[in-house]
Amino acid sequence: MDNKILQGYLSNFRIDFDFDKGIKEDQLFEHFCNYCILSKIHPEAFYNDNFKIEELNVGGGNDTGIDGVAIVVNEHIVSSNEEIDALKNQLQRLDVKFIFIQSKTSSEFKASDLATFIFGVKDFFKDTPSLKINDDIKSLRELKEYIYTQSILMEDSPICELYYVTTGRWTNDQNVAGRASSEIKELESRNLFSNIKFIPVDAEGIEKIYKEIKNKVTKEINFDKNTPLPRIEGVKESYIGILPATEYFKLIEDSDHKIQKTLFYDNVRDFLGVNSVNKEIELTLKDKLKQLKFPIFNNGITIVSKSLNKVGTYFKVKDFQIVNGCQTSHILFNNKKSIDLDNTFIPIKLIVTDDQDVINDIIKATNRQTEVKIEAFESLKDYHKKLQRFYDSFPKDDKLYYERRPREYDTVFPEIPRNKIISLAAQINAVISMFWNEPHSTHRYYGELLKSYSGKIFLEDHNPYFYYVSALCLHKVDTLIKHGFIRAHYRRYKYHFLTLIRVLVCGFNYPKFISNDITQYCESLHAILLKDKETKEIITKATNCIDKAIEIFNNKHENRNQNDYRRLKDFTFEVIEQAKKIPPVFNLNIKKKTKHKRYLERRKN
User: What positions does the domain Abortive phage infection protein C-terminal occupy (predicted)?
Assistant: First the structure.
C-alpha cells in the first residue's frame, strides 16, 4: 500500500484491537474496512452488541469474492435464529439490512474485481449456491433463509448495501460504474429487496470515516431562542429553548448528510420505526397548522454535552449525546426532504456536565414516558459501579476495564486498548458461559439474557470476583483466537472454552457466589489465566474435549448441521462431560452440588 496516511491508520487500528504484528497488510485492511463501514452505519456493533471485528470477516478460501458480511435486524447485528426471534418479539416486526464489503489495497477500482464481488452477492441469495462456499458463508446463508421465512413481519423488503473499498480515488469511471449498474439490475430482478445500494469508498472516504469514528463530535448551532437556567449542582451550565429544525439537522448529521447514530448511544430507546406514536409525530409535521404547534405538542430533545463554547447566540457543542429524543430526531430527519420544515421549531434542553452520576440521573428522568427495555437502565444500577471499582483494583499491566456505558473509555486511548475493555454485553456472555454453563445461550440478544437471568445476575451480595475472572477468561480466549493459537475453526465454540477452562482448572462444582470460598476459587482460575504457558495447556485440553464432543454429537445427530452446535444444550452437555473426565489442575474439594450440576443430571437422565 502506497498511501502513508492509511498505513498510519492501520498501525493505530492494529494496536487498538490487538491484531498480531505478523498479520498481512491486506488482511488487516479487510478488518479495518469492515470496522469503519459497520461503525459508521451501525455504531453500536462493537459496544452494545458485543460484536468482534474478526466475526465480520468471511475472507479467505471459498469466500465467493466477499470480505465482510453483516446481517442487521432491528438495528442489531445477528448471528443466530434465537437473536432474530428475540428482536422480533420485542417490536413485532423485522427491519432487515444485508451489508456486504469487499476491500482491496490496490490503488484502482477494477471492473473485474467488482464483478467478482457482486457475483458472490448474487450467489449468496440463490436457493442453491453455484460457488463453493466456506463455513462462514454457509452459516450466514442459513440465517438469511430463516429471515425470509419471517417475511410476513417485514413492513418492507430487506435493504442490501454493497461497499467496494480500495486505496485509490473514485472517479465514477464509466466501465466500473456501468458494470456495477448492470450487475445490480440483475440482483434487483429477483424482487428480494426494497432497495439495493452500491457504495464505492476510496482512500479519502475511508480516511474520513475513520477520523469521524475516532474523534469526538463537535458541532456549531445558532441557538438564539434560549434561556439560561439557574445554577444546578453538578452542572456547568444549562439552557432551555427552541431550535429551528433546519438548525437541529446541523447537530445530528454527519459529513455525508446522514443521521449520525453515534449521538444516540445514551438514548435508552432504539429508533422504533413507524409505530403509532411516531406516525402521529409524522402526521403533525405534514399538517401545516399543526406543524406550527410542534413545540407545544412535542416533549423535545435533551442534549448532554461535556463542554461548550459560546459566542453570542452561536453555541459550539463538543462531545455530546442526545439522551432523549431519538424518535423525534429520526422522524424529522426521515421527512426533511419530503416536508417543508422551515417553520418547525423543536424544544431543546442543553445541559453541560461531565459528572456521570448527573448524566445517569438525566437519562433516567427524561426516559420515563413509555416502557423502556430492561437493558436500557441496567448499567445505571449501583452494582455495576461496584463492579467497575473492582476491575479498577487490579494492577495496570493485568487489569481489564469494565465499560458500563458505551464509549466510556474512548477519551483515554491509547492508554487503554480497545481489546481490554469489557462491555456489559461481553460481561453477561462471559459469566453465564463460565459459571452458569450456558455457552449455547450467548447468541441471544443480551437484553433477552438480562430478562432471562433477572434475579440471578448482578445481585448486590454477589462477589464481583467471579464476574471479573470470567471476563478475563473471555479476553484471553479472544486474544488466542486473534493471534492464531486457537484456530479460526474453533471461533464458534469461543464461549464453550470459558466453561471448559473453569472445569479443567477447578473442577465442575463451585461455591456459592456470596460465600468467601468463591474468592479462593476465582484466585485459582486467575492464577492460571495470568500465565501464558499454563493457559495454552488448558486450551489444548479444551480443544480436545470439543473435538471429542463433536465426534459423539455427530454420531447421535447425523443430519444436524455443524454450524448449529453452539446453540444446542446437548452439545454443551457433551463438552462438559468430556472435561469432567480429566482431573482438574486444582483439587479444591468442593462437595456441595450446584444448581447447574442438578440441571445437567436431569438432562442426562
Answer: 264-557
Other CB atoms within 10 Å distance of the CB of residue 410: 17
Q: How far apart are CA 416 and CA 399, in angstroms?
A: 10
Cell of 263: 449521538
As a whole number of angstroms, the distance between CA 162 and CA 99 comes to 6
**pLDDT the model gives residue 554:** 79
Strands 314-324, 237-244: parallel, antiparallel or unpaired by DSSP? unpaired
| Integer Cα distance of 201 and 544 in angstroms | 43
First-to-last alpha carbon distance for the chain, in angstroms, is 60
Single-letter amino acid code for the residue at 122:
K
**How far from the centroid of its chain's Cα atoms is residue 73's Cα?**
12
What is the rounded CA–CA span in Å between residue 474 and residue 379? 20
Question: Which residue(s) pair with 218 in the sheet?
Answer: 318
- Written as one letter, the residue type at 354 is D
Res. 102: pLDDT tops 80: yes
Identify whether 200 is preceded by a cis peptide bond (ω within 30 of 0).
no
Distance, CA of 555 to CA of 558 (rounded, Å)? 6
3-class SS of residue 16: helix
Largest alpha-carbon pair distance within the chain? 77
Grade residue 269 by pLDDT with cuts at 50, 70 and 90: low
Place of cell 481490554: 420
Give the per-residue pLDDT at 567: 55
In whole angstroms, give the CA distance from residue 213 to residue 413. 13
Estimate to the nearest angstrom the gap between the alpha carbon of 108 and the chain centroid.
31
pLDDT above 90 covers what percent of the chain? 45
The pLDDT tens digits for 503-547 are 999 999 999 998 888 999 999 999 999 999 999 999 999 999 999
Contacts of 219 (CB under 8 A, 6+ apart): 250, 251, 316, 317, 320
Round to whole Å and give the CA distance between 115 and 95.
28
Half-sphere exposure of 223 (CA within 13 A, CB side): 28
pLDDT band of 199, cuts 50, 70, 90? very high
pLDDT tens readout for residues 399-411: 899 988 766 776 5
Q: Which strand (E) or helix (H) includes residue 40? A: helix 25-41
Four-residue CA torsion sign, 523, 524, 529, 533: positive
SS3 call for 589: coil
pLDDT classification of 412: cutoffs 50, 70, 90: low
Nearest to 183 by CA among 107, 105, 102, 106: 102
Grid look-up 410542534 returns: 294
Residue 78 CB burial class (10 angstroms; 0-12, 13-18, ≥19)? buried
Residue whose cell numbers read 437471568: 453
When pLDDT is averaged across residues 128-152 and rounded to a whole number, the result is 91
Neighbours of 95 (CB within 10 A): 19
Cα distances (angstroms) measured from residue 429 to each of 50, 420, 500, 535: 9, 16, 15, 20
- Domain spans of the chain, in order of start: 4-214, 218-372, 377-604
One-letter amino acid for residue 215 of the chain? N
Q: Where are the alpha helices (DSSP H) in 411-506?
A: 424-434, 446-452, 465-482, 494-506
